[in-house]
Amino acid sequence: MKGWILGLFLVSISSIARAQINFGGSTSSRGGSSSASVNVGAQAFANSRGSGSSSASFSGGFSAQGSSSNGRNFGSSNSRGGAQTNLNSRISAQSSSGCLPPAQCSSSLFTSGDFSRSKCSLFDGSQGFSCSARTFVGSSRRPFQSADSGFISTRANAGARVNVATAFRSGQNAVSNMTFFSSSQFSSPKRGTGSFYHARFQRQARPALQRVGRAGLLATQAALELSNGVSTRQGGRGDRTAVNFGSSVTSRQNIESNGQSCSSSQSCPTRQYRTADGSCNNVREARYGQSDTALNRIILPEYANGIDTPRRSTNGAELTSARVLSTNLAKDFNNQDSKFTYITMVFGQFVDHDMTHSPILKNGNNQDIDCCSSSAGADFESFCDPISVPRNDPFFQGRRTCMNLVRSTPAPALDCSVRYREQVNQLTHWLDSSQIYGSNDNEQRSVRQGRGGRLQTASGPDNGRQILPNDNQESSCTGTCFKAGDGRVNENPNLSVLHTIFLREHNRVADQLSRLNPSWSDEKLFQESKRFVNAEYQHIIYNEW
After folding, report:
1. What digits encode the pLDDT tens for the residues 52-110?
2. What is the DSSP string of 392-403?
3. Edge-to-edge strands of the sheet including 34-39?
4. Is the predicted pLDDT of residue 216 greater than 80, yes or no?
5. Per annotation, catalytic residue among 353, 499, 506, 539
6. Which end of the chain has fewer CB within 10 Å, C or N?
C-alpha cells in the first residue's frame, strides 16, 4: 500500500511539474503580448502580464523557443525587434522620471506614511515607487540602518570599570554547566510525535552550528554577567531596553577563540560567480548575509531582562499561553479564496526557505530536546520555553498540559558585541535560490551531478522523467525522502513539486547551454545555469508573485 501511495504521489509531482506556475485562480488568456529581457546577472525588467506570444532575450547568446498560453513562461517564443526596443526605451524613460518598479525599491524600508507618499504609476499603468538612489544596482550599502542606537557604558556607577574578561570567564563556566545540564536532564522526543518531526525539520543543518550556538550563548552569558554591575535600565519599571555593551578587543578574542569570526574587513577576491555561502555578496561587508551568521534586526528585541528571557507583560506577569490564544482567535474556517490559488502560499514558503532558517538547539550530546520532559535547573530558559496547555483545551482535553518548544540556536553578533541574544540564520540571507543549491560549498556539491552542469535527479514513474533524488540520510519521512538544497523540501507535497520544477528548469538550461557551448566545463555550465535560473526566480518573485 505504501509503495502504491508513493507511486501515485510521484506521478502527481511529475504531472504538476509540467505546468507553468500560475498564482491566479484562472489560466485564461488576458490578451496582448509580452516581452521580457532577462540578464543572467540576476537583473530583470519585464511586465509579462499578458498572454499570447512572448519573447525573451538572454545574455550569452542563449535563447529558448516555444509558446506561452498565460504569460508565465520565461524563455519562450521567438519574436523580437521593434517591440523590444520600444519596451527598453520606455523602461529607460521610466527610470529617469524617478518612478521605479517595486523590485528596484526592495531595499528601502518604508513607514506606512512613506509607503503612501512614494506611490507612482509606471509607463504601463501598474504601481511603482519613488525610492532613494542607493537602491540601484551597484550599491553595496546596507539596505536599512542597524536597530542599535547606542551602547551601555561598561563603567559601574562608582566609576570602576567592569572587567569584560572576567565576565567572559564566568560566561564560559555558565555555558559548560548548561550544556552538561541539557545532556543529563532532557530526554529526546519520541519518534512519530509532532515534537519529533518538528525537531527534524528545524534541526541544525551542519556540525558547525553547534560551535555557533555555544559562541552565541557565551556572548549572552557575558552580557548577563556585565549587567549585574551596571545600570542597564533608563526608563524605569516596564522599560525593555535591549542591553548592548558593544564590541571590544576582549569580546572579539573570546568569541574568536570559540571558532567564530569577528572581522568585517574580510577580503573579497574578484570572482565571476556568487559564493555558495552568501559571503562577499556585499563587498564592503563581506560577512553580511553569510550563512551561519545572526539574523539582522530592524527593531530591537523586547526580552524581559533586556538580554535573553522571554518577554513578559508590562506588569511583569507571564504572557497568556500561545495555545490559549490560538484556540480562541485562530478559528478553523473553510473560507476559499476567489483570487489566489493554494500555490501562492506554497511559493511563499519556497521563498522563505531560501532566506531564513533559524534551527533549534540540541543538547550537549547533539541530540534533540523534549522540553516537556523536565523543568528543573536554573538554565532551563536558555534552552526551552514550552507552551502550557490548559486542561479544558478543546482538542487535548486534559491529555496533555505541555507542548514542546525548544529555543532557536543563538549566534554572536557580526562584530562580536556583548549584547542581547541573537538568533542564527543557517541559510544565506539573500534571494539566491539556496533552497535549490544549498548554503555552503559542501551542500552545493552534494546536490550536483558532476557532469554537464546538472543537478542530481532520480527517475520518476512517468517514463523516467526527472524527479528529486532520494535522501537516504533523512529520517523524517514515511517512505522515501527527497533531497534538495534545503532540508525542509519534504515538509509538504506541493513544496516538493516546486523544488522539482526548478530542478528540471536548471537541468533544461544546463543541457541547452552545453549544446551551444560544448567546450564549457561542468563548473562553468553549472554556474551559468544557476545564474540564469536565479534570474528567472527573482523575476517571478518581483513581477508575478
Report:
1. 333 333 333 343 333 333 333 333 344 445 555 555 565 555 556 678 887 677 555 55
2. T-TTTTTS-SEE
3. 43-46, 34-39, 54-58
4. yes
5. 353
6. N
